[in-house]
């Protein structure tokens, strides 16, 4: 580790290096020329007049631009099961997955499909119905439709999500480290293979990590995730041993991998299977903290997949098993929102 | 001195060149007052430091995701350490780490550890309380220590 004295030596040496960098040639002449211009600058009245004229011109241009703005962009193509080329703007033809609600809102968008993933090139603008969101692709991005949202596999993309009326069913954007839950806002995602970040521009979003915990993200903040952390937590398996075991059993012995699997099922909308997986996992655990995480995660799944009374029962059960638990506030909020009959 | 101070905070020659020009224009605009200043070098130091800090803050806004998105703006390539005469790898690493610190922390750190300015004077120059300057220094030191651990 570097001591402060060593660091100070480094800093002084660094400062000495920078001191040796010569001033660019012509800088003095530029400064002298600039000061001369400064002297010859117009009087305050004349300057104010120039600023006023420039402002008026700006206002006029803005008014003109707004007046000539085209109507809301119409979807020019939907995405179909055939690997068709980009549709002509004039003749919108149904293409891949029209039921999933994709449509392109930029004329020159290039896209392709591989399995269930759609790859959009930079510059594409994509509209998604249910939930209503507009995406602007910044770098080539792989997207896939999931229940109530999209999953992002790699790329940089800006999301503009229309207000969601039901706070219990937020729009969802799945990334490698978890799921972003949104009720209407603008944010930009950068997702690499196993890590990424989100920049929240306005509104409020929350990040549901793979272990079920929620992190609130404030406007102007950047939130990072990485699945590498998860991998580090997971014990290493002997590949030969793993191959001998049934897949579910192998996953069941590994908490992180099992939670990742639950997250995958959740993203795929297979809520019942996710609940079964969590129940299996709970039977194998003895640590109270882990059981609490599993129980909470199960509660959120039950809430989405079952009738209100069952969800209430689930939350009350959680509260009884984990009095003064880490999710108390969230559980109380959910009970209140579901308008559960008091126990 | 003006160019060197700007270079250390901005890490780029053209950036430092712009700051130098702005500082001398400001000096020219206040030439009458400057004639009465007892320590013109100190005055230039203050003005340069504040100007660098303001530019770094503005730069942060300009390079933020929403503004880049709105302006379709690409970030210019900064000078490499070699172009700034930093050939030693360890020094280049320290410089790169300092450039990653938030502007206020970066400026405070250089002022305190290299220029030997007391906390009170740094606070006076930057318009902050001594407590806040101490906090900034502490955060910068911790960030660099964490980097040592990671590295």
Considering the chains and any ligands shown, give keywords for the structure:
A: 343 residues, alpha+beta, B: 151 residues, mainly alpha, globular
Quick overview:
The complex is a heterodimer of chains A (343) and B (151). Chain A is of the alpha+beta class. Chain A is 41% helix and 23% strand.
Please give a structural write-up.
The complex is a heterodimer of chains A (343) and B (151). Chain A is an alpha+beta fold. Chain A has eleven helices and 15 strands. Chain A has helices at 4-19, 27-39, 44-67, 227-233, 239-244, 247-252, 255-267, 271-284, 288-305, 308-321, 328-337; strands at 77-78, 102-104, 111-114, 117-120, 125-128, 133-137, 141-146, 149-161, 171-175, 178-182, 185-191, 195-202, 205-209, 214-217, 222-226. Chain A has a 15-stranded mixed beta sheet that branches. In chain A, helix 8 (271-284) packs antiparallel against helix 9, helix 9 (288-305) packs antiparallel against helix 10 (308-321) and helix 10 packs antiparallel against helix 11. The longest helix of chain A has 24 residues, at 44-67. The termini of chain A are far apart. By secondary structure, chain B is an all-alpha fold. Helices cover 75% and strands 0% of the residues of chain B. Chain B is built from nine helices and no strands. Chain B has helices spanning 2-10, 13-29, 31-36, 40-62, 65-71, 89-100, 103-113, 119-126, 130-150. In chain B, helix 8 crosses helix 9. Chain B starts with a helix and ends with a helix. The A-B interface holds A 1-2, 4, 7-8, 10-15, 17-21, 23-24, 27, 30-31, 34-35, 38, 136, 138, 158, 186, 188, 199, 201 and B 3-4, 7-8, 13-14, 17, 20-21, 24-25, 28-29, 64-66, 69, 84-86, 88, 90-91, 94-95, 110, 113-114, 141, 144-145, 148-149.
């Amino acid at each position: 580790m570097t001591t402060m004295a060593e660091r100070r030596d480094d800093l002084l040496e660094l400062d000495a290096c920078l001191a040796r960098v010569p001033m660019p040639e012509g800088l003095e002449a530029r400064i002298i020329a600039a000061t001369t211009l400064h002297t010859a600058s117009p009087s305050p009245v004349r300057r104010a007049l120039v600023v006023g004229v420039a402002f008026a011109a700006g206002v006029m241009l803005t008014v003109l631009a707004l007046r000539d703005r085209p109507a809301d962009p119409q979807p020019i193509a939907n995405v179909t099961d055939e690997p068709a080329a980009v549709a002509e703007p004039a003749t919108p033809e149904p293409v891949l997955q029209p039921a999933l609600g994709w449509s392109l809102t930029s004329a020159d968008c290039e896209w392709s499909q591989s399995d269930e993933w759609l790859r959009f090139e930079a510059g594409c603008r994509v509209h998604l119905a249910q939930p209503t969101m507009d995406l602007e692709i910044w770098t080539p991005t792989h997207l896939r439709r999931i229940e109530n949202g999209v999953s992002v596999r790699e790329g940089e993309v800006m999301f503009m999500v229309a207000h969601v009326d039901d706070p219990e069913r937020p729009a969802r954007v799945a990334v490698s480290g978890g799921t972003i839950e949104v009720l209407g806002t603008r944010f930009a995602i950068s997702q690499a293979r196993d890590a990424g970040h989100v920049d929240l521009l306005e509104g409020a979003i929350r990040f549901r990590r793979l272990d079920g915990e929620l992190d609130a993200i404030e406007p102007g903040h950047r939130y990072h995730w990485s699945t590498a952390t998860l991998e580090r937590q997971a014990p290493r398996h002997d590949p030969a041993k793993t191959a001998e075991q049934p897949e579910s059993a192998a996953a069941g012995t590994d908490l992180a991998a099992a939670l990742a699997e639950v997250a995958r099922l959740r993203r795929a909308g297979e809520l019942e299977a996710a609940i079964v997986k969590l129940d299996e996992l709970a039977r194998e655990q003895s640590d109270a903290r882990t059981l609490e995480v599993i129980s909470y995660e199960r509660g959120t799944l039950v809430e989405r997949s079952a009738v209100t009374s069952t969800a209430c029962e689930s939350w009350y059960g959680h509260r009884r098993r984990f009095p003064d638990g880490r999710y108390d506030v969230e559980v109380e909020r959910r009970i209140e929102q579901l308008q559960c009959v008091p126990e | 001195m003006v160019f060197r101070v700007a270079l250390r905070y901005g890490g780029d020659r053209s950036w430092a060149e712009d700051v130098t020009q702005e500082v001398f224009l400001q000096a020219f605009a206040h030439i009458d007052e400057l004639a009465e200043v007892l320590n013109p070098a100190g005055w230039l130091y203050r003005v340069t430091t504040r100007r660098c800090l303001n530019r770094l803050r503005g730069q942060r806004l300009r390079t933020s995701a929403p503004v880049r998105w709105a302006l379709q703006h690409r970030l210019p390539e900064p000078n490499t350490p070699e172009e700034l005469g930093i050939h030693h790898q360890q020094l280049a690493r320290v410089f790169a780490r300092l450039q990653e610190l938030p502007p206020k922390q970066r400026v405070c750190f250089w002022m305190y550890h290299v220029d030997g300015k007391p906390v009170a004077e740094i606070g006076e120059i930057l318009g902050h309380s001594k407590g806040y300057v101490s906090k900034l220094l502490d955060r910068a030191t911790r960030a660099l220590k964490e980097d040592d651990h990671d590295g």
